[in-house]
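Dear V.,

Thank you for sending over the compound details. I've combined the ligand you provided, adenosine-5'-triphosphate, with the protein sequence from our construct and run the structure prediction for the complex. I'm sharing the raw inputs here so there's no ambiguity about protonation or stereochemistry in the SMILES, which I know was a concern on your side last time.
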Amino acid sequence: MPLLDVRNINVSYDDFHILKDVSLCVKMGEILAVIGANSAGKSTLLKLLSGLIQSDSGDIFFKSNPISGLDMHEIARLGIIQVPEGRRVFPFMTVFENLLVGSFMTKARQKRSETVEYVFNLFPPLKERRKQLAGTLSGGEQQMLAIARGLMALPVLLMLDEPSTGLAPIMVENIFKVIREIDKEGLAILLVEQNVQKSLSIAERGYVLEAGKIKLEGSGKALAADPYVKKAYLGL
Ligand SMILES: Nc1ncnc2c1ncn2[C@@H]1O[C@H](COP(=O)(O)OP(=O)(O)OP(=O)(O)O)[C@@H](O)[C@H]1O
Ligand SMILES: [Mg+2]
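Below is the predicted structure of the protein with adenosine-5'-triphosphate bound, written out as structure tokens.
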């Protein structure tokens, strides 16, 4: 049984049909990569799964229960947590306050101090800077904070929207290393990325989203070796 099962989803903005009959699943504990070029519909997919927008048709099941139509709070309560594109930390709050916001739900609040310890271990620079205003952090540190804030909610499914975008190569390495580390805790990770090579190298499985349609799917390894993926996404 997949953790998340998305079946034949269609999403439109006004007259624009963005996601076209998209079906995919996320298995328990895996890292799943969704790769695609600009405007493919990747963020739209994550917004749909977070309950920020609704589909025109199709079904979404989480642990076999239908969740289409639930709002973002109900979705978050189930443990489906999104780290949005572009970080979006609260700039006028400290690092520590941002983390507390992430753990506002009852269950997460009860484990707050434990989880803070865990994310500080994962991202030591955040511990050093816990009293610093988030808006004054570097881009890399803000990305760490955005992921850490997501983890504070104790996700069952963590969805990351382009965590490596705009980061220097060494920070990109670090973020991918941490994603693998987080996955060892047993949660599932849905990773949306334009860094195709890196994301396929850490993902068990992946999907290629092209102009709102699933073009290919397979293991991370198989997709990285696929002639079409190589040509269209890896420039080889
Ligand atoms: N609120 C909106 N209203 C109208 N069109 C939208 C809206 N949000 C997104 N779109 C359109 O939907 C398409 C898919 O956008 P989306 O943000 O999902 O792409 P993406 O794959 O995440 O791209 P990127 O890699 O650049 O982040 C784009 O053509 C975009 O212009
Ligand atoms: Mg996007």
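A first observation: The radius of gyration is 17 Å.

Warm regards,
I. M.
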